[in-house]
Structure formats: C-alpha cells, structure tokens
Design a protein that fits this description.
About 40% of the residues lie in helices and about 15% in strands. The protein has about 600 residues and is α+β, with helices and mostly antiparallel strands. The strands form three sheets. The chain has a six-stranded antiparallel beta sheet with strand order 2-3-1-9-8-10. A hairpin with a 5-residue loop joins strand 4 and strand 5.
Length: about 600
C-alpha cells in the first residue's frame, strides 16, 4: 500500500519541479510512512509514499522497466503476482525486485491498457512512458483504492487523496454545489465528481490515457447480471432451484472464496482480521483458521451503547476460533472527539458517524503492529444481505395488493434493531413505506425511499445554495441529482433484485463504504484492508447467481449461510443481518459536547459559510 501523487505539464514547458512532488507527498505521508520516492524529469513528476508489505527491502518506488523507458508508482496489492511473474519471465522480462508492482509494469509492456484484464487486486497506479511522453492512470474494478485528478493551468495533477492536489498553488479548494446536492441525496458524490469543484476521481473500472495534451478516460470493466427469466435456477421447484443446482453452486463458491481469502494473505508482514461478529467477517476469518497455518489476530469494536454493540458475538467467534482478540471500546464522546480527524481524512461531508469507530479500530490495529487486515466487506452487496433488498421485495409484494393490511405488517420484521423506528407503531411504518409504493417501474424503486429520506436534509440548505444548485442544473445535462446516476442500457433487462444490487454497489459501496469507511479510515493509521468478497472472480460468480441463491424468500445471503454452516457456530451463521451503525446525536449533543460543535453551529459560522 502507498500514497501516490503526480504532476504532468500538458504543454512542453518542463515546469514540474521535485519540490512540487515533495509537497504533495507530505500530504499523504500517513498512507505510506516507510519510504518515499520521486521520479522527475521536468515534464512529469511521480511520487510514492510507501507502506512496505511485499518485498520490504527491494520494492521502493518509483520502479522502472529494464531500459528505464517506463516508470510506475502504485498504490495497492496485486494478489496474483506470484502466478503472473513466471509467465512474464518466460517471455524474457527481467525483474529487478520481488514486488508485485513490477509485475504491472511488465504486463503493461506486453499488453498496454489490456494489462488490467490480468490483474487480481486492489489498485491505483500511474505509468509514465518516456518514449512517447504519455501517462497511463488506472483504478481497480470496484474502486477499492482511490485516485483523484484535476487540470489547472494546462497541468494535470493526481493523487491518492485530494489534499495532495490541493497542496499545489495552482489549485483552489472550492465546494461544488451540485456535489452537495448529490451527497445530501445518496450519502456520497457520484463518480467522477467530488465535493470540490473541478476535482474528479478516475471512476472504478476505468483507466485514463494522457497523450499530447489530450486526456481520455475509458471503462475496462463493469458489473453485469443475467437477463431476468433467463432460466438460471428458475425451474418449477417451489424454492426456485434443485438440490443438484445448489450443490454445484455451493462447491464453486466454496472453492472461489477459499482461494480469494488465501491469496489475500500474501504479505511479508503479519495479516490480521476484523471480526464484527456477523456472518461475513466470521466466514473469512474461519477460512484463515481452517485452511492456513497463519498466526490469527482479530480486532473488533465494542460500543458502550447497547443499541450498537455486538461484542457478545465477536467474543464468541474469537473464542470459537482461538484467536488473539483485541477490542477498541467506543462511547459517544469518542465519536464526537475524533470526528474532525475523520473528516480531514475522508475529504467529503458524511451524513453518518460510522467512519469514526472504524478510524479508532484501525488505530488499534496499528498500535498492535499490524499493517494489514482482512475484512468482510462486499458480501452484503453481492449476495443481497442488506435490508434494502428485502424491503424492496416486500414493497413490490405489497404493491400487488396496496390495500392489504397484512402485507405491510411484514416490514416491521426488517428494522427491529432500530428502537426508534421499531417502536413508532404500525400506522407510522405503513405510512412511511407506502410512499411511492405503486411506482414499481421506476429504475430507482429499491432506493427511492432512502434517497428521499436523505434529501429531506436539504431543507437546511441556504436560499443562496438552493438558487445556485437550481441555476447549475439549468446549465448542465442534469435536471436533478438522479439524472446523474449512470445506468447501463441492459439495466431494465435484469431481475429487480439485480437492479437494486447495481445501485447499491455502484453508488454506496464504491463511493461511501470503500472510501469514507474503508480506505480512508484504514490508511489514516497506515493500515491496509483486504476484501475476499471483492475478488473479481467472486464478484462475477455472485452476479451470475439466480436471485433465489442470494435471497430465498426473505432469507438474505442464502448461499453464504449454507457455506458457513461448515465452519461457524449455529448462533453466528443463523443470525439475521444487523448492519454496522454508530451513535449520532449523543456523539455531539451532550453536556460535554466538543467545543467545535457549538462553534460550527453558531450563527456567525453558519452565516459565513453561506451553505446552510
């Protein structure tokens, strides 16, 4: 893992200086405090702040190919580099290091942009070709690792974090009103937008080529699902599948997930694991215990507030697996105390406090001398674990008989873990979930309630901000935030569950979960997360599953539960999904509230920002 930065003069001015790259690197040194490296030739500058995990002594970046015509800086891990290297050596490539970084470079020599098709990993990298003065930037399929860029004064600047770009005097930090409109709708911006005007991300599954001053961004990978009713598993059996089909899928899934977990243990440093007490992290941790001889240290969050705490299940799993288990104890005050640091690292307004405990958890990991942790992210998105999928299924069922009194009562089962909602009464629940009930043909049906609920916070926008947003929409192709949502042409041909999954994965997973809660909170403390469920082979397998193998009736992650029976206690694999949450109100509004809360809510401060 690393932080990477770069600057390219799009005109033949040779204006890039080493001091520029040093300044950018200083802003991301938390991502890679072990080593720093710079390549600079006047036209371009590349920088790397390295967190040493593979080839500790020999993998310092930037790295060049044999004749030093190509130079690379790389953030991430290529997990199948062990298999790729012998093939490249057989073709005559000579390696100067044992790092996974150099594997990318030689693949690029052979295949150009198609080198990305061979990579199993999580990555963002830049390759400078001295021969034709071209730059190649690329980001992994799901956006696990970040990569941002802007153009100012005919100069391209890029980096793992926006603060590196903002450190350059060419760039101004200015809030984009349309980005705020997106955040207060979707909880995040929509790629390629960021909250800062004219600063963009390279979208997940895309690469960028910069040649002769021209910038081109291309997609190389996208999510895909089978057409609805294509026959996969949709036979006459009342459960939607045969026992033979289940056994076949289960065997494939077992093999894939074990291998995805094992190759993510490749490191020259110890690898720990997050253990939430839920199905997903418990399964990957159990695979480590059952199929490797690795030392197994686990880490978890315990909340002082019972409404959020799952420590009883975490301890149960740690005891069951015999791990060396460490816990960070979080109360309301802790969340409020670290929130300014969370925002500094996340570089985006967040509508939830969930990143704060993750920040404290990665700090615990680092204090225990670990740089790498395995986590369970991705299972809920790709195997339909979230209540939003069950909610959409129930609402579609209710919409067939909208006057039914029995059908809406089923919704009460979904949110029993949220006391305020569960105790609000059936009339309130029915009124809340009935909004837009009949709009089943909307492509956003599964998420409309969530987005509509988040949008209610826009009532706090100032009159000036609302006016600016309205004016900007009249001057862009968008009539509203929803019009900026990318939907592939084949979207309408998918099953309704798969449509809901696409929205969740392309917006919430990539733009919020893997960013604000994932990469940023881990790398704030120089800790790398690894995600077996986000192995692209597991993803593509899961996407082709019949819907009933993901959600059988209202049982979420059905195939994963069947697999987990082999390795987990009954209390764990049968647990209903309980989403990770963190305290909000009591983190900020108590007799001992942090000073910044009252300061930022003062009339003077609110008026000065002009946003609210």
């Amino acid at each position: 893992m690393c932080g990477i930065v770069g600057k390219l003069d799009l005109l033949p001015r040779s204006s890039v200086r080493e001091a520029n790259i040093r300044q950018m690197l200083a802003m991301v040194r938390h991502r890679g405090p072990d080593q720093f490296g710079i390549y600079c030739d006047g036209q371009v500058g590349l920088g790397s702040a390295r967190l040493s995990i593979i080839d500790l002594s020999g993998g310092q970046q930037p790295i060049a190919n044999e004749d030093q015509t190509l130079w690379i800086v790389f953030n991430g891990e290529i997990f199948n580099y062990v298999e790729l290297r012998p093939e490249l050596e057989a073709k005559g490539h000579r390696f100067a290091t044992n790092s996974d970084t150099e594997t990318i470079l030689h693949l690029y020599e052979d295949h150009g942009p198609h080198c990305l098709d061979y990579l199993n990993g999580q990555f963002a990298f830049a390759i400078w070709d001295t021969r034709d003065q071209s730059l190649f930037l690329a980001r992994d399929r799901l956006g696990i690792r970040p990569l941002f860029y802007t153009v100012a004064d005919q100069t391209l600047l890029f980096g793992s974090e926006i603060k590196a770009i903002l450190s350059d005097p060419l760039v101004r930090a200015e809030i984009d009103p349309l980005a705020l409109d997106q955040i207060f709708t979707f909880w995040s911006t929509l790629s390629p937008y960021t909250v800062f005007r004219d600063i963009f991300d390279v979208p997940p599954g895309h690469y960028m080529v910069v040649e002769q001053g021209e910038i081109t961004v291309e997609r190389y990978w996208d999510l895909d699902f089978p057409e609805a009713g294509s026959g996969q598993g949709n036979n006459a059996h009342p459960d939607g599948f045969t026992t033979q089909a289940l056994d076949e899928y289960l065997a494939q899934f077992r093999e894939l997930l074990i291998d995805a977990t094992q190759i993510r243990l490749r490191a020259d440093v110890p690898v720990g694991a997050y253990l939430s007490g839920g199905l997903d992290s418990s399964t990957t941790t159990a695979i480590i215990r059952n199929f490797t001889h690795n030392r197994l240290d686990t880490f978890s969050i315990a909340f002082s507030d019972h409404d959020y705490d799952e420590s009883i299940y975490q301890c149960q799993m740690a005891d069951f697996l015999g791990t060396d288990h460490q816990v960070v104890y979080v109360d309301h005050a802790d969340v409020g105390r670290v929130f300014p640091e969370v925002i500094w690292h996340s570089e985006v307004p967040v509508l939830r406090t969930s990143p704060a405990p993750m920040y404290l958890l990665s700090k615990l990991v680092r204090e225990n001398n670990f740089k790498v942790v395995m986590t369970g992210e991705g299972a809920d998105e790709f195997l339909a674990g979230y209540n939003i999928f069950r909610e959409a299924k129930l609402r579609r069922f209710w919409a067939r008989q909208p006057e039914s009194e029995m059908r809406p009562a089923l919704l009460g089962q979904l949110y029993a873990y949220i006391p305020g909602l569960a105790n609000s009464g059936e009339a309130y629940m029915e009124a809340f979930f009935k909004r837009g009930l009949a709009e089943v043909d909307s492509p956003y049906y599964s998420h409309a309630l969530r987005w509509g609920n988040a949008s209610r916070t826009k009532r706090f926008f100032s009159k000036a901000l609302r006016g600016t947003i309205a004016d900007r929409y009249t001057r862009t192709p968008f009539a509203s935030a929803l019009d900026a949502v990318y939907l592939p042409a084949r979207f309408e041909r998918w099953d309704t569950l798969h449509r809901a999954q696409y929205l969740e994965i392309s917006i919430f997973l990539s733009q919020y979960l893997l960013s604000s809660q994932g990469d940023r909170m881990g790398m704030a403390n120089s800790v790398e997360g690894r995600f077996p469920f986000l192995d692209h082979r597991v993803v593509e397998f899961s996407n082709q599953l019949p819907p009933s193998f993901k959600m059988l009736g209202l049982t979420e992650k059905f195939l994963l539960r069947k697999l987990a029976q082999e390795w987990l206690p009954d209390d764990i694999w049968t647990r209903p999904k309980r989403p990770y949450r963190a305290p909000i109100h009591r983190a900020f509004f108590t007799p001992d509230s942090p000073e910044y809360v009252q300061e930022m809510l003062s009339p003077e401060c609110v008026q000065e920002t002009g946003l609210f």
